[in-house]
Amino acid sequence: MAKKRRNKLLDNKILWLVVSLVASLLIWMYLTGTQQEEIVVDLSGVEVVFEGEDSLRDTRGYVIANVDSYRVDVTVRGSRLNIGTLSSSDVQAVIDVSGITKTGFNSRTFTLRYPDGVDASAVSLVRSEPSIIGFDVTRMTTKAVPVECVFSGNAAEGYIYDGIECEPTSVRISGTESALENVASAYVEIAYEGMDSSRTVDVPYTLRDAEGNEVSMEGLELETDTVSVTVNINMTKEVPLTVSANYGAGATEDNTRITVNPESIMISGDSSVVDAINSISIATIDTTSFSASVTDEYDIILPDGVTNLTGTTSADVTVEVLGLETRSFTVNNISYTGLPEGYTAEVITQSLPVTLRGSAADLDAIRAENLTAVADLSEVSHTGDMTVTVRIRVDGFPNTGAIGSYQIAISVSRGG
């Protein structure tokens, strides 16, 4: 009978419901009491923040400098529920500088700023180290410093480094006078290896003092934090200097010797230009303008964008006609052609001394009847006595001709 009563008691649902409610109430009372318990939390390295710093700079041109410490260690007290999960990164030590009206040294206490979810009014500061932050308020100033670009790499074989350029050539830096005092330049170094073309890149720079030591950028404002750097790499090539010849009066490519000194020069420039240059022509010589040889100096003129690395700006050219002789003759057969309609002409010159160049055998065989001087009058546009250039023909001797230029006198009039 007793066993039956126990089973009936265990099966009583109302009883168990009452037991559960009592247990829950006891647990809730315990947890509530625990969460409301006061605790102390140590926070190390809390960040110091200057509130109103931007306004101070924008309205008065002041900046904060020489801060004693940007981190503080604090101990706070509050309920476990309120501050139990706080960490140093959740909290800031705030100093309001918006009301500062003059430069100089300042020392201020801070207030702690807590994250959302923390009741700041229920948190008390037990201790702080340091408790007061000292700092200077000074005027913001701006300084322009030159950009120094350095290339420490190298060009590929067949190419040459042709300088480095920076844009801008100077940068403006703002900060306190003391922070800017040692800044002498903005330094950029490019170290590409085996370069075979020019390259432009945007790169950051470092600040250097007059001795080349790096200067900290902390507390400085930069007009730009990068500069555009162009490393100029040009193709190099050795090309011959060439001379062309207009052959005549017995001179041909086979019996003419052309000497150029120097024979070649080294050039550089953009590969798209230099790669297409296989020689540099410096002159065209008329072989009928001299008897046996001529030597002259000619300027070496290069295409735009091409540099003469050799440095020689002119070349000596000697042209020699070999195996021929010269001899004097007189031309008596003088005529003209091409006289415009409406004009008449009379040749005044009756005989013309000329010098012919050719082989000895041809010169021995030439007679007066083989020689003719012919003037082209197609360009005549006025009347009167005048001199005109004539062409000397040597009929029957194609490898012999006159050297030099010749003129005759004629008289031109209107009418037919």
Q: How would you describe this protein?
A:
The chain is mostly beta strands and 416 residues long. It has 7 helices and 30 strands. Strands 2, 5, 8, 10, 11, 13, 14 and 15 form an 8-stranded mixed beta sheet that branches. Strands 9, 12, 16, 18, 19 and 21 form a 6-stranded mixed beta sheet that branches. It is rod-shaped and about 150 Å long. The termini are far apart. The mean pLDDT is 91.
Quickly count the helices: 7
Q: For the terminal residues, how far apart are their CA atoms?
A: 171 Å
* Structural class category: mainly beta
Computed over alpha carbons, the radius of gyration is 50 Å
Overall 3D shape: rod-shaped
The main pleated sheet reads as: 8 strands, mixed
CATH topology of the largest domain, by name, is RNA Polymerase Alpha Subunit, Chain A, domain 2
Indicate the CATH class of the largest domain. Mainly Beta
Mean pLDDT: 91
Low-confidence stretches: none
- SS elements, strand count: 30
Fraction of residues in H or I helices: 10-25%
Range of strand content: over 45%
Per CATH, which architecture of the largest domain?
Beta Complex
CATH homologous superfamily caption of the largest domain = YbbR-like domain
Number of structural domains: 4
